[in-house]
Design a protein that fits this description.
Mean pLDDT: 82
Low-confidence stretches: none
Largest sheet: 7 strands, mixed
Oligomer: single chain
Distance between the termini: 41 Å
Strand order of the largest sheet: 14-26-25-24-15-22-23
Shape: elongated
Strand content: 15-25%
């Protein structure tokens, strides 16, 4: 079982590492992923061993707040509330940063001689104390909480640095004679404490604003659903809140309005813009019997429909929940950041102590040694490291959603970028999946019997035969004793006649000699003729295959269809490698064989019929309309049934990987260079705090470049 838990109070990679370690150690937990950007932990656990509340308590024991998020429509409301809280926090932090910078800059501009004046020194002490309690209050409370729970994080480092600067300055202010008597300059560093906190708070304000951009696609999805619906009750149209709509209610939608909930059209006809869900810019015609999705936009006509799916069952709510889960999952590359973060803060504390001791041994001034030690504490804060990967995953997931792609988190991105072979199912993937009969030499009597036998089959070719017979005005009797062998054919008894339809090999196995292409038909052991059925290639498949090849991928067409048909479709699509006439287990075996050749294989299918092959592949792409269970299948779901999405997903994964590695490289490289510079006295605490804040913002800014993917 999987649960998502909200975690409040995390500010850096060390925080996530503490929470992660606590969850990993909890009995019954098989896997946990803690995300700094979303402030959530996704936990896989055995409910028979551990309760959800126990997991939340394990998080609280590390010093952070934990609560369970809502699902479905509740998830949408909760996300809206989180968005409002983030906006409020960003505004609050911005005000605090602005005031703190103004006070710090004013203090820094004061001549040094004035700082030694008691009145000025006490005024600066008051200003510093104000900033520390008002702007930096959460930093100190977070540090105290971490220490109470036996851990250390970024708050501890900042609290130690600014606290040391303030207490040293306060000692100089209250007892300057003590320092003069020992030949130590009675300098104060109130402005340093103020500016350090100012830059840290400013950095967090910029992070908060930038993080809101990372969830912009999710925010757009949430804002799709209108607040009210126009319901018909006793023949009268009544506008009610969406939350009051019940399954089966008749709803009217006018031109230009958003569709309030999922349903099925019962009267009228219109074109609906489903672009936000599917990435398809062309409106889709909707008439009686068609499904509509809540949040999409009615463009032209007016129609009436019946509500079918509400709350958690709605497409929009499921997508919001899936996107939140995807954005909270961790990429394997984060394990590197985890290993570093677990020892980072203790090592930094030791380095700060060694820095101070080194300055003292070298005969330096206490003030210079303390300043260098404080700079080490400040500049080494592991903020950027904690933001490096999750921000990239969040932005890339959001950008994918704008293309009609649901990519299931960081691990899926890493697997996708390694794919070198794409295996495509034919029917419904490369082709439309809606075959039709193009010719037949059967008379109406034989066609009627064949269509009746095929009426029990779920195969698209069978549907084409039935539709063709009905279009000829033939009434189909009820079949009995229906049997089906996947990839070969069917058998049934119709009005006392034994009807067999399928391949020549299938008829031969049933004792009927026949040759030819298409669907061969035998009645009572006598070959009657055949039907030729064609499934047209999807518009865009040729271009999509060309794009996959441009990305350096090998493309394979894998189908249970006859080789002649498969090769004809492959030629039209531009695919050179074809594996045809294979049963479902044969598809799985073919993917396994490719994997044994050390290939990283992605399989593209409909998410249901190709389930075994999708499961065997390294990455499974489920082709879906956005309105069925395929939304929840595979590593990637294509809400728009278009192969172009496969190439986009792989291109996006490669771009996301580049950003992840750039971010981690910057975060680690920054510390490798900055810590020695601070220890040697080249960076004072104020500059160190500014550099630390900018490092975090630069990582988030670099991730936001992914929002432009596909626009070049």
């Amino acid at each position: 079982m999987t649960v998502t838990i909200n975690v409040d109070g995390m500010v850096c990679a060390s925080c996530t590492a503490h929470v992660q370690r606590a969850l990993d150690k909890t009995p019954g937990v098989s896997k946990a992923a803690v995300n700094l950007v979303t402030g959530q932990a996704v936990v896989d656990f055995d409910p028979s061993t551990v309760a959800v509340e126990t997991l939340a308590e394990a998080i609280r024991d590390t010093g952070y707040e934990a609560s369970l998020p809502q699902q479905g429509r509740g998830a949408i409301k909760e996300q809206e509330e989180r968005e409002r809280e983030q906006a409020t926090e960003a505004r609050s932090l911005t005000v605090k940063a602005a005031v703190s910078v103004a006070l710090g800059a004013s203090a820094m501009l004061l001549p040094m001689r004035l700082m030694h004046e008691p009145a000025v020194a006490y005024a600066l002490a008051t200003a510093a104390l104000f900033v520390m309690t008002w702007a930096g209050g959460r930093i100190y409370s977070g540090a105290a909480r971490a220490v109470r729970h036996g851990s250390s994080d970024m708050n501890v480092l900042i609290a130690l640095g600014t606290g040391a600067a303030f207490l040293y300055s306060l000692a100089v202010t209250t007892a300057p004679g003590f320092f003069h008597a020992r030949g130590i300059a009675a300098d104060v560093y109130y402005e340093a404490a103020i500016l350090i906190l100012a830059f840290v708070v400013a950095g967090r304000a910029m992070e908060a604003r930038a993080k809101r951009h990372t969830t912009s696609a999710l925010r757009k999805l949430i804002q799709l659903q209108p607040p009210t619906a126009r319901v018909i009750r006793e023949g009268v149209e009544t506008e009610i809140p969406v939350s009051a709509v019940r399954r089966g209610n008749a709803i009217v939608v006018r031109p230009g309005e958003k569709i309030p909930v999922d349903g099925e059209v019962t009267a009228g006809e219109s074109y609906v813009d489903e672009s936000m869900l599917t990435g398809e810019p062309v409106p889709v015609v909707k008439k009686s019997g068609n499904t509509v999705v809540g949040g999409t936009v009615n463009t032209t006509g007016s129609f009436e429909y019946r509500a079918t799916a509400l709350g958690e069952a709605s497409v929009l709510a499921r997508i919001v929940t899936l996107m939140r889960q995807a954005q909270s999952t961790r990429a394997p590359i984060e394990r590197l950041a985890d290993r570093i973060s677990r020892v980072f803060v203790p090592v930094v504390l030791a380095l700060a102590a060694l820095t101070f001791a080194g300055w003292m041994v070298a005969g330096g001034e206490i003030a210079r040694g303390a300043s260098a030690a404080v700079a080490v504490l400040i500049i080494a804060c592991p903020c950027a490291m904690g933001l490096a990967v999750p921000t990239a995953v969040m932005v890339a997931s959001g950008r994918g959603a704008e293309f009609g792609l649901l990519i299931k988190g960081g691990e899926a991105f890493e697997k996708l970028r390694k794919v070198d072979t794409i295996v495509l199912d034919k029917t419904g993937t490369v082709t439309e999946g809606k075959p039709s009969v193009t010719s037949t030499d059967l008379d109406d009597a034989a066609l009627r019997l064949a269509a009746a036998a095929e009426s029990r089959s779920e195969h698209p070719l069978a549907h084409a035969v039935v539709a063709y017979a009905v279009s000829r005005g033939l009434a189909l009797p009820e079949p009995h004793g229906f049997q089906s062998v996947t990839g070969r054919g069917i058998m049934a008894e119709v009005e006392g006649h034994r009807v067999i339809a399928g391949t020549a090999a299938w008829l031969a196995s049933c004792g009927v000699t026949a040759e030819g292409d298409g669907i061969l038909v035998a009645v009572n052991g006598k070959f009657m003729g055949s039907l030729t059925v064609a499934d047209p290639i999807r518009a865009g498949s040729v271009k999509a295959v060309a794009e996959l090849k441009r990305l350096g991928l090998d493309v394979v067409l894998l189908t249970g269809d006859r080789r002649a048909n498969a090769e004809a479709i492959a030629r039209e699509a531009g695919i050179t490698r074809v594996v045809a006439e294979v049963l479902p287990e044969g598809k799985t075996a073919e993917i396994r064989r490719l994997q044994q050749e050390k290939r990283v294989v992605a399989m593209v299918g409909d998410g249901i019929n190709d389930a075994p092959a999708l499961a065997q592949a390294d990455v499974g792409f489920a082709m879906g309309s956005g309105t069925d269970i395929a939304i929840e299948a595979g590593d990637v779901t294509l809400l728009r049934a278009d192969l172009a999405g496969v190439a986009r997903a792989i291109g996006l994964s490669r771009a996301a990987w580049r950003v992840m590695t750039q971010n981690l490289g910057w975060a680690l490289g920054y510390n490798v260079i900055a810590i020695p510079a601070a220890a040697l006295g080249f960076l004072n605490p104020v500059i160190a705090s500014a550099a630390m804040a900018l490092s975090s913002v630069s990582v988030v800014g670099n991730s936001l470049r992914l929002k432009r993917f596909g626009r070049q």
